[in-house]
Amino acid sequence: MLGQSMSDFPLELQGSAVPMVSFKQVSKSYGNLVVMNALDLDIAEGEMVTIIGPSGSGKTTVLRMLMTLETINSGVIYVDGKPLTHMRNGNNLAPADERHLRKMRSKIGMCFQHFNLFPHMTALENCMEGPVHVLGLSKREARERSEELLAMVGMADKRNQHPSRLSGGQQQRVAIARALAMRPKVMLFDEVTSALDPEVIGEVTSVIRKLVSEQNLTMLMVTHQMGFAKDISDRVCFFYGGHIEEQGTPSELFGNPKKERTQQFLSAVK
Ligand code: ADP
């Protein structure tokens, strides 16, 4: 980026109100196509932020960058005050190596449109897998934690079923429990209701509502469900062409959008 050097970015974020997630001047291109242009976005601890916007505006790219599935071209992303995309090298930041990425990734839980449960494992085994093999918990501890979370998502009685025996909504609830079993600091939801039949969408949105009201989790969600975004978010960001065109509380953004592009988008999706 012109005029920007790595020494302009802090090695760590410090102070009383360090955001849980912080994108600082983050840019991403595919060849000549700039899909994210100097994005600045802070998400406070416990905040629920929703990203809305037209197809191709960069919503999924934001989540993929946080999951470290994409390398970024410039800028730094911090999670919990520590650089995610970079690591300390003396008094400078250098691109993160695989070990650093693995450590930082454990702070982030994700749920996608397609739930990707392990088909040969029961719901309970799906939830226990990460805590046992990645976190090194005993089977007993992992089972206790997983059973608690499956109960929280209303799936306790189906814990011994394999995914093929569960409906889409049930599988998505197991996927949420599986992600939470890793005790992430940040949860990402990428269009988690888009692949579901309309009649089961409510069971998944009510689990997310419950997380918002009962847990102090930091969450970032991409959704096409405007009503849900309006109900549940602390803040809504409208993306357009790889940048935040407008953001605000749900009542500001939905009730009184200031920018013409936001107004056009919202009237088209109504
Ligand atoms: P959204 O989630 O808002 O629909 P995306 O973040 O998926 O948008 O995509 C943003 C832009 O990046 C789009 O123009 C898309 O075509 C482009 N893009 C995404 N992934 C790739 C890729 N692997 N290679 C090239 N272009 C890509």
From TrEMBL:
Limits of the ABC transporter domain: 21-266
Membrane topology: Peripheral membrane protein
Alphabetized UniProt keyword annotations: ATP-binding, Cell membrane, Membrane, Nucleotide-binding, Transport
Family per similarity comment: Belongs to the ABC transporter superfamily.
The keyword Transport appears for this protein: yes
Protein's cellular compartments: Cell membrane
Protein name from the UniProt record: Ectoine/hydroxyectoine ABC transporter ATP-binding protein EhuA
SMART domains, alphabetized: AAA
